[in-house]
Request: fold
Amino acid sequence: MSAARHRVSTRVVAISVLVVALILAGVVSFYAASTPDGLTKVSEDEGFAHTETEHDAAEGPFAGYGTSFIDNDRLSGGVAGVVGVVAVLAVFGGLTLLLRRRGTPGDRSQEDSSVERETDSAAS
Reply:
């Protein structure tokens, strides 16, 4: 008895990954630990946390794992997470499409030789 193999399309996988990422960023991120991150923890343990200074983007719209324009902490963190996911996927999706369309040098030489063969056979 052989089981039929069902192939899942790339589009279905991509949409599924997007939905899971958006849910994790928008909903589950609120339940993340509120304890300090690794660098902050080490700086506190080693006694140099007092040397921390504000960075240039500290007043930015998405500073501090939230948004400056939404007062509700839960919603603010969720929106920041969703915007972050969309930004990362847009950048890497764009790079993927760009590099995929460009192809490799070997692909182009094969395409060029097949075009030459088609041109030669059409001229004959």
Q: What stands out?
A: The chain has a mean pLDDT of 81. The radius of gyration is 25 Å. Residues 60 and 77 are 14 Å apart (CA to CA). The chain is about 60% helix and 0% strand.
